[in-house]
Specification:
Structural class of chain A: mainly beta
Helix content of chain A: 10-25%
Number of strands of chain B: 0
Order of helices and strands of chain B: HHHHHH
Largest interface: A-B, 23 and 20 residues
Strand content of chain A: 35-45%
CATH superfamily of one domain in chain A: Immunoglobulins
Distance between the termini of chain A: 180 Å
Helix content of chain B: 55-70%
Shape of chain A: elongated
CATH topology of one domain in chain A: Immunoglobulin-like
Strand order of the largest sheet of chain A: 34-33-36-37-31-32-35
Shape of chain B: elongated
CATH class of chain B: Mainly Alpha
CATH topology of chain B: Growth Hormone, Chain: A
Number of helices of chain A: 12
Largest sheet of chain B: none
Largest sheet of chain A: 7 strands, mixed
Oligomer: heterodimer
């Protein structure tokens, strides 16, 4: 044990006494009854110190292990029940201390200590003092790490000034204020002392107060006399005594430029700025420092100002687009907004003067409000000179002059292809021999849009190439450039046309192909609607792919393997304008698939769906060509025959009358007159025809001579008896089918049933015949309308016997008009023999059934 | 967030035994005490884990357990089933009453210790404070039960006495461990005590 004197005034000097003599203590007795003790309790050490830990156990046999934060420590046994552990360079683990504990292996309680390891107190760094107003010193430093612990407060700082002997305890860890002595002490010698439970650290600082002046930032920064190009800046500085001069630094930022000025100031500062741009915002800042003993610059003080507007300095860049609509010129004027440097202020409006060059007296004036960048003019076919000026609040810009010629002068210019890059299109053109005041390159940023977004670029007369770039350029879009020369008369005329892609892309669409002329050996493909202008690259031609099962390619095609490993024949068409193709050398009745795709320098179109086609049979077209007309002809003939069947029948195979099948025959048989026989037709010759006129209600007196005297009709009509086309009279053989006769031209002259000529021949007189008829056909006659005419054949012989008034001609003339006589065909001799009565009767009934009913 | 809510819930429990004049039925205070004990039981292991986490090794080591550490001033909750079962209602309530009385004082002590040892751990301090309040609430409920059952209420005693102030930091860490551990054990035992009573005096 020893002692020392502690004097705050002399912290560096400590005078220790001599050590006391050792005393021996019996640990076992001094401790309590616990089985285990660990020492030292709650020890506070600095990081990196060497610490010795020991434990004392009551029973020496106990096997005790000790741990530091879970890691077993290797100790040194001093006595059977005392063990020490030497810890070197202990580390800081946490502010709440490091646990060290010991534990017996027989379920004894754990015993331990907490070792508080603090960080080492550091010397204050960057200790510095300065003043802003010469009344207060502000001292600052970097305190380093905090050494505060549970067992120890954070370090404290004390400021001691040796000349005045004053001392102050700083309230903050990193700075302290010091009141400057009123007696104008110039020199200061400070000692800053950091102190904690374990250690003290000090730093010293000696300085002259006037050399540590850090002025406050200037204030009241103002701008006066601000014109278009000049401005004056004034500011004030805080007073630091009358005998100090300040050096001030002024910086001016504007339009990307910085200018700097140094000004010596006592109270007020002033700086003139010149050569400024009109209508431009500038930012000025100022800071000051002690001019005699520079210590530190003050903080900056900022202020902005804007120069006054001036008239626009440049003429607007003007271009036009001329369209002819119904004999008028629609001129769209475009101009680019002036840059900030050119505008010299806010452009308010644009004035346009349109001067007719052909009639100098008439000119037109337009004023367009400012945000507009173009206008549309409707002009006639005269030439016009157009002046465009931009106006701001101060004045007018120079005029931009452009001439719109009455003659559009759209001379044909060959279009040339150019290759674009990502950076734009590099265009060059031939220099013009005449006087050219400049060139203009014109294009559309959006050529596919409804508004093409016309752009132009003006270059000087000596330039014959330029690079056109635009953010609007997209890959796969064709851009057209027109290069105009501007003559000295300011008339633009087209020089060259260029077209190209900023980047060519493979065609995205295949043409819509129409297939025609399909034969067994070939078919034709055409894609007339395919527009090569709207493709994403210059189309160089087409590939026609043809897939077939045979897999053989004929000349003119080559084998190609598609992406899906399908093999097909590829025909190449080199001309992009050829939009038809004939696929030949095909097999009949074969299945083919084809695809037409365009190709360009960057590839070909998508291999989309193939179109399927099957070639027809080789012979079927020929057969169809022959059979169809034949079938048609046959059908026509059949229809005609059907329609004219009756005529045909009469012409070609008329029915042959058979006397043996006459109904008269059965009539005769029913009378059972054995004497009556059928006269052979060849035995009699008809010579006259008797016509009977029937009167209404006189059927019963048919036999009376007065009322029913037979009238003889002459076969040759006379002038008296023939009175033009009247009721037709048909001479008919009764063996004809009555129904067929009715449906023919005689239909409107119904006749009563008559006896055939052969039967008439049996009757010696008309009276006899009428009697016979009357008896048998009374009923049927009642059905015949009254007043109609009955015809009977009268044989020539009978007629002669009855004493005819007229002599009948031997050769009867042809029947006139619709009167016709159905000729009887000569019956062969074999057929003239009378048939059996049964068959005759049956035949007779059949005929009668088809005709009028007699039963 | 849960602590203010828990304290609000405790308010009627604390007040209930104090309300005079009501007909005394043991079922209601038993039910209230049982509910509170169940609620406390849910939080005891969290309190212990939070406590150990802030004490450093060996306490914060996974699976730390030192059953041999005891406090003479705190009655142990561990009891054989036979002994526990042989106790009558009055004895059980009396034991629990005594234990929670000691626990409230010890939890106050541990809270003070940790304010020194772990000043930067407000969560631990809040949990210790909440546990102490709940222990006090349970004490009040038990007093109400004993009143309802007509049992004598043991007088409050100063279980801590003058012992603990000279303890070292490590001893205080150990003490806090024993208190938070025993708080859990006694809460478990109280749940069983009260469940038995609840079965005996159904509401």
């Amino acid at each position: 044990m020893r002692s020392a004197e502690d004097d705050a005034k002399t912290p560096e000097q400590s005078f220790w006494s001599n050590w006391s003599s050792w005393e021996e203590v019996d640990v076992q007795n001094s401790l309590g009854h616990d089985p285990l003790f660990v020492f030292p309790k709650d020890k506070l050490v600095e990081e990196g110190s060497n610490v010795t830990i020991c434990y004392v156990s009551r029973s020496p046999q106990s096997n005790i292990s000790c741990y530091l934060e879970g890691v077993q420590m290797q100790g040194e046994q001093l006595e059977p029940n005392v063990t020490v552990f030497n810890l070197n360079h202990v580390a800081f683990i946490r502010e709440t201390g490091t646990n060290i504990y010991c534990k017996g292996d027989q379920g004894d309680s754990i015993k331990g200590i907490v070792l508080f390891v603090s960080k080492v107190l550091e010397e204050p760094k960057e200790f510095s003092c300065e003043t802003q107003d010469l009344t207060t010193l502000n001292c600052t430093w970097d305190p380093g790490s905090d050494t505060g612990l549970l067992k120890q407060l954070s370090q404290s700082y004390t400021l001691f000034e040796s000349f005045s002997g004053k001392k102050t305890l700083c309230k903050h860890k990193s700075w302290c204020s010091w009141e400057v002595a009123p007696e104008s002490q110039e020199m200061y010698n400070f000692t800053l002392t950091a102190e904690n439970y374990l250690r003290k650290r000090s730093v010293h600082l000696l300085f002259n107060l006037t050399h540590r002046v850090h002025p406050m930032a200037p204030f009241s920064v103002l701008f006066t006399d601000v014109s278009t190009t000049n401005a004056t800046m004034t500011w004030k500085v805080h007073s630091t005594g009358n005998y100090y001069t300040l050096l001030c630094q002024v910086k001016l930022y504007g339009e990307g430029e910085v200018t700097q000025h140094n000004v010596s100031v006592e109270v007020d500062g002033e700086q003139l700025f010149s050569g400024l741009e009109p209508d431009t915002e500038y930012r000025a800042q100022v800071r000051c420092a002690n001019a005699n003993h520079f210590w530190k610059w003050s903080e900056w003080t900022h202020q902005n100002f804007t120069t006054a507007e001036a008239a626009p300095s440049e003429a607007p860049d003007v271009w036009r687009n001329v369209k002819s609509v119904q004999g008028h010129s629609v001129v769209t004027l475009f101009w680019k907004p002036l840059s900030k440097l050119q505008a010299n202020g806010k452009i308010l409006f644009y004035n346009i003067v349109i001067e007719n060059l052909d009639r100098s007296s008439s000119s037109k004036f337009l004023s367009i409000p400012a945000p507009a960048n173009g206008t549309e003019l409707n002009l006639d076919q005269c030439s016009y000179q157009i002046h465009v000026t931009a106006h701001n609040s101060v004045g007018t810009s120079p005029a931009s002059v452009i001439i719109v010629s009455g003659d559009p002068g759209n001379k044909e210019v060959e279009e040339e292809r150019v290759k674009g890059t990502e950076d734009g299109f590099s265009l060059s053109w031939k220099p013009q021999p005449g006087n050219v005041t400049g060139y203009i390159v014109e294009w559309c940023d959006r050529p596919r849009g409804p508004l093409c977004d016309l752009q132009w670029k003006s270059v000087g007369p000596t330039t014959t190439s330029t690079v056109v770039s635009s953010d609007a350029f997209r890959p796969g879009v064709q851009y057209n450039f027109r290069i105009y020369g501007i003559s000295t008369e300011r008339v633009p005329y087209l020089l060259e046309k260029k077209t190209g892609y900023s980047q060519e892309l493979a065609p995205s669409d295949n043409p819509q192909v129409v297939m025609s002329n399909l034969t067994s050996r070939s078919f034709t493909l055409s894609w007339k609607d395919y527009s090569i202008e709207s493709q994403p690259s210059f189309i160089q031609g087409y590939h026609v792919y043809l897939k077939s099962k045979a897999g053989q390619c004929h000349s003119g095609s080559e084998k190609a393997v598609l992406s899906d490993d399908a093999v097909c024949c590829k025909y190449k068409i080199d001309n992009p304008k050829q939009k038809t193709f004939v696929v030949e050398n095909l097999q009949p009745e074969s299945f083919y698939e084809f695809l037409v795709t365009p190709y360009s320098s960057v590839g070909e179109g998508p291999h989309g769906a193939f179109t399927k086609v099957t070639t027809p049979d080789e012979y079927s077209p020929i057969l169809i060509r022959v059979i169809l007309p034949m079938v048609f002809c046959i059908l026509l003939i059949m229809i005609i025959c059907y329609l004219k069947s009756q005529w045909m029948k009469e012409k070609c195979y008329p029915d042959i009358p058979d006397p043996y099948k006459s109904s008269v025959l059965s009539l005769i048989k029913s009378k059972e007159n054995p004497r009556l026989t059928i006269m052979n037709i060849k035995d009699c010759v008809p010579d006259s025809i008797e016509v009977l006129n029937k009167q209404e209600g006189t059927r019963k007196s048919l036999t009376e001579t007065e009322s029913s005297k037979p009238t003889y009709l002459y076969l040759l009509p006379t002038e008296e008896s023939y009175s033009g086309p009247g009721p037709c009279i048909c001479f008919e053989n009764f063996t004809y089918n009555q129904a067929a006769s009715d449906s023919a031209s005689c239909g409107h002259v119904p006749v009563a049933p008559k006896a055939p000529p052969s039967q008439l021949a049996l009757l010696t007189s008309p009276e006899n015949l009428l009697k016979a008829l009357e008896e048998n056909y009374m009923n049927s006659l009642g059905e015949i309308p009254a007043g109609e005419t009955s015809l009977n054949y009268v044989s020539q012989l009978a007629s002669a016997m009855t004493g005819d008034k007229f002599s009948l001609p031997t050769n009867p003339p042809e029947p006139a008009l619709c009167s016709e006589y159905k000729m009887q065909m000569a019956i062969p001799l074999g057929l003239a023999s009378p048939p059996s009565s049964g068959s005759s009767s049956l035949s007779s009934f059949t005929l009668l059934d088809e005709g009028e009913h007699y039963h | 967030m849960s602590y203010p809510l828990a304290q609000l819930c405790l308010l009627p429990l604390l007040l209930s035994p104090l309300s005079p004049g009501a007909p005394i039925s043991p079922a209601e205070p038993i039910s209230q005490a049982y509910s509170l004990a169940l609620y406390m039981q849910k939080n005891t292991s969290t309190l212990l884990q939070t406590y150990l986490q802030y004490q450093g090794s060996p306490f914060s080591d996974p699976g730390f357990s030192a059953p041999e550490l005891q406090l003479s001033s705190l009655p142990p909750a561990v009891v054989s089933f036979k002994t526990w079962h042989a106790l009558d209602d009055g004895e059980r309530l009396s034991h629990a009453q005594g234990a929670f009385l000691a626990l409230t004082q010890h939890l106050q002590l541990v809270g003070d210790d940790q304010r020194d040892l772990n000043p930067g751990s407000p969560m631990l301090l809040a949990q210790l404070g909440a546990a102490r309040l709940r222990a006090q609430g349970l004490l009040g409920n038990m007093a109400a039960i004993m009143t309802a059952l007509g049992l004598p209420i043991p007088p409050e005693e100063d279980t801590l006495g003058v012992v603990p102030f000279g303890a070292s930091a490590f001893e205080r860490k150990c003490r806090g461990y024993v208190v938070t551990r025993e708080y859990g054990h006694w809460t478990d035992r109280a749940v069983r005590d009260l469940a038995l009573l609840k079965a005996k005096y159904p509401g």
